[in-house]
């Protein structure tokens, strides 16, 4: 199988403002408590998800190579280009003319791009590759 993901990139538009109700108490995954009080207040998802607007963008995943890491086909990713790449981070990478989404593994001598699906092969980055870590994934937004 091909290691490459097709990613669709989107710019951030912070000019829009939509107030969405937000319940601070959280949602119980067990038994509900009818006695709990709640306070409804607005939340701005731009402020919640985007910490560094000039270096942040969205992209949509097209492929299943990261499904074992919880990133599925169709997920919308929030990617920050200002973050430093570190071992274990999930990154949008540009390698040999194509974008791919992989987990970074750095050992003493090499950088590896690891898929989150056993049907895909890890990519060993060598000096012969044209390679750039484009940005680090900070959020994955799912639709159900």
From TrEMBL:
Keywords: Autocatalytic cleavage, DNA damage, DNA repair, Hydrolase, Nucleotidyltransferase, SOS response, Transferase. It is an enzyme of class 2 (transferase). The keyword Transferase applies. It holds the Pfam family Peptidase_S24. GO terms for biological process: DNA repair; regulation of DNA-templated transcription; SOS response. GO terms for molecular function: DNA binding; DNA-directed DNA polymerase activity; hydrolase activity. Its EC number is 2.7.7.7. Residues 26-138 form the Peptidase S24/S26A/S26B/S26C domain. Gene3D superfamilies: Umud Fragment, subunit A. The keyword Nucleotidyltransferase applies. It comes from the Bacteria. Signal peptide: none annotated. Belongs to the peptidase S24 family. PANTHER family: LEXA REPRESSOR (PTHR33516), LEXA REPRESSOR-RELATED (PTHR33516:SF2). This is Translesion error-prone DNA polymerase V autoproteolytic subunit. It comes from Salibacter halophilus.
């Amino acid at each position: 199988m091909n290691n490459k993901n097709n990613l669709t990139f989107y710019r951030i538009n912070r000019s829009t403002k939509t107030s969405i109700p937000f319940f601070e108490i959280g949602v119980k995954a067990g038994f509900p408590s009818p006695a709990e009080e709640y306070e409804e207040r607005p939340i701005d998802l731009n402020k919640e998800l985007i910490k560094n607007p000039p270096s942040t963008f969205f992209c949509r995943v097209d492929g299943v190579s990261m499904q074992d890491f919880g990133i599925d086909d169709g997920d919308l990713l929030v990617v920050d280009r200002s973050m430093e790449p570190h071992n274990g981070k999930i990154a949008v990478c540009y390698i040999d003319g194509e974008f791919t989404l992989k987990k970074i593994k750095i050992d003493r001598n090499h950088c590896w791009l690891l898929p989150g699906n056993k049907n895909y092969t890890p990519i060993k980055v060598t000096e012969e590759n044209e390679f750039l870590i484009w940005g680090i994934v900070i959020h994955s937004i799912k639709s159900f």
